[in-house]
Structure formats: C-alpha cells, structure tokens
Amino acid sequence: MKSTWQLQDAKNKLSELIAKAIRQGPQLITKHGEKAVVVISYAEFEKLRKAQTKLSEYFRASPLTDLELSRDKSPARKGIVL
C-alpha cells in the first residue's frame, strides 16, 4: 500500500487523499487502528472491473467440464435409520 491515512486525517485532507490515489495508487484508510477501506482512482477501478470474469464463464472454461459424472443407483444400505 502506497500510503496509510487515519480516518480523521482522510476526512480533513480529502482532496489530497484523492490526488494521491490518482497519482500514486491505492490509499489505505484506517479506523481505530484497523484497516477499513482503500481509495483507488476510477481508472484503477475500471481495470479491476474489466479483469473480472463472470462466474458462468469461469465454470465453462474449467478443465472439469469434461468430467462425466454418474450417480450410484444401488439401494441404500440396510439397517441405517435416517
């Protein structure tokens, strides 16, 4: 992470935070010492969004699509109470 901001500083210096996100990359904001959010430029957001694939496309591209699955149709074992 390029830079870390406490929430209060981020609120007080929002313009600077945004400018750094555009020029330098992602900016981390902490709340009560815990990592809370990351501010990124819109261009970075678009790159991430375009890099995502749909879940259905992911499964279609999987090497497991060629598996032939069959169910065992033999009767259930005797003596087992469900």
What does this entry look like structurally?
The structure is a single chain. The mean pLDDT is 88. The protein has helices at 7-12, 14-23, 42-51, 55-61, and strands at 3-6, 27-31, 34-39. It is built from four helices and three strands, in the order E-H-H-E-E-H-H. Helix content is 40%, strand content 18%. Strand 2 (27-31) and strand 3 form a beta hairpin. The chain is elongated. The protein has a domain at 3-53: YefM-like domain (YefM-like fold), CATH 3.40.1620. 4% of the residues are buried. The protein has 82 residues and is an alpha+beta fold.
Element-level helix/strand string: EHHEEHH
Percent strand = 15-25%
Strand order of the largest sheet: 1-2-3
Give a short account of the largest sheet: 3 strands, mixed
Oligomeric form: single chain
CATH topology of the domain at 3-53: YefM-like fold
- Let me know the CATH homologous superfamily of the domain at 3-53: YefM-like domain
CATH architecture of the domain at 3-53: 3-Layer(aba) Sandwich
Helix content: 40-55%
Q: State the name of the first-level CATH class of the domain at 3-53.
A: Alpha Beta
Shape: elongated
Q: Please, how many helices?
A: 4
- Which consecutive residue ranges, at least 5 long each, have pLDDT under 50? none
| SS elements, strand count | 3
CA distance, first residue to last residue: 53 Å
**Mean pLDDT over all positions:** 88
Structural class: alpha+beta
Radius of gyration (CA) equals 25 Å
